[in-house]
UniProtKB/TrEMBL annotation:
SUPFAM superfamilies: P-loop containing nucleoside triphosphate hydrolases (SSF52540). Its EC number is 7.4.2.1. The lineage of its organism: Bacteria, Bacillati, Actinomycetota, Actinomycetes, Propionibacteriales. Its main location: membrane. Belongs to the ABC transporter superfamily. This is ABC-type polar-amino-acid transporter. InterPro entries: AAA+_ATPase, ABC_ATPase_HisP-typ, ABC_transporter-like_ATP-bd, ABC_transporter-like_CS, MetN_ABC_transporter-like, P-loop_NTPase.
Length: 247
């Protein structure tokens, strides 16, 4: 579903990704973890082309993008919009429109991105709010919802667009501790339903439950990856230090 090859990305003089390879198969749940600044968000943002690759390629469900591994003159093989429609993204900050109700926050992109008419968009939005357990809050504005509820609205909004893969960038990091569980529960259900997911998280307990492949990044490279076994027996000293520090 996602194939990344030789991905490099710099911001000015700072090389943030130094050659990343990553495969995410259909229905697979991949966890990215590692210290702040290691390039995790940049990997996610490369998958939906918020950051175009300097070098290497990103392929999502057969749509490829980027200059290629050889670094030849930039040939953009896929249209970014075609790729972006296949990818749903949930951010640390929920990015809801404060002046729209929960229902309208979900319905708006159904109209603007999917081109749905108002009435079916509302119906579909309600269906997805029900899925995240928030149908009864449909008429509430973001300011009237808890952080956990807002994040569930953001998840419903991304899901309603019917993505092939869902990206989560530290979806619980901005939440009070008592609200983390309800968001992880929704994500867990989604994983159980077979959604293809790439999740950046420091919740290593959750990672252990859903992560088919767990990828430790540091300083722009994949240091080590593996099954949940990785959390018990990390081989690399940097992975060991990080896991010990997060626990
Ligand atoms: P992580 O998500 O692992 O914390 P990021 O991918 O956000 O790491 O960032 C990796 C590095 O790239 C950091 O040093 C960050 O400051 C830098 N960076 C990220 N985005 C930009 C940008 N748009 N402009 C300049 N520097 C950036
Ligand atoms: Mg980040």
């Amino acid at each position: 579903m996602v194939k990344i090859r030789g991905l490099r990305k710099s911001f000015g003089p700072l090389e943030v990704l130094k050659g990343i390879d990553l495969d995410v198969h259909q229905g697979e749940h991949v966890v990215l973890f590692g210290p702040s600044g290691s390039g995790k968000s940049t990997v996610l943002r490369s998958i939906n082309l918020l950051e175009p690759p300097d070098h290497g390629s990103v392929c999502v469900d057969g749509v490829e993008y980027g200059p290629g591994v050889a670094g030849a003159a930039s040939v953009k093989r896929g249209r970014p919009m075609a790729l972006r429609r296949k990818v749903g993204m949930v951010f640390q900050q929920f990015n809801l429109f404060p002046h729209l109700t929960a229902l309208d926050n979900v319905a708006l992109p159904l109209r603007s991105v999917k081109g749905m008419r108002s009435e079916p968009a509302m119906q579909r939005a309600a269906e997805y709010l029900r899925r995240v357990g928030l149908l009864e809050r449909a008429g509430h504005y973001p300011g009237q919802l808890s952080g956990g509820q807002q994040q569930r609205v953001a998840i419903a909004r991304a899901l309603s667009l019917d993505p092939k893969v869902m990206l989560f960038d530290e979806p619980t990091s901005a939440l009070d501790p008592e609200l983390v569980g309800e968001v992880l529960r929704v994500m867990h259900e989604l994983a159980d339903e077979g959604m293809t997911m790439v999740v950046v998280t420091h919740e290593l307990g959750f990672a252990r439950e859903i992560g088919d492949l767990n990828v430790f990044m540091d300083q722009g490279v994949v240091v080590e990856q593996g099954s949940s076994e990785l959390f018990d027996n990390p081989r690399n000293a940097r992975t060991q230090d990080f896991i010990r520090a997060v626990r």
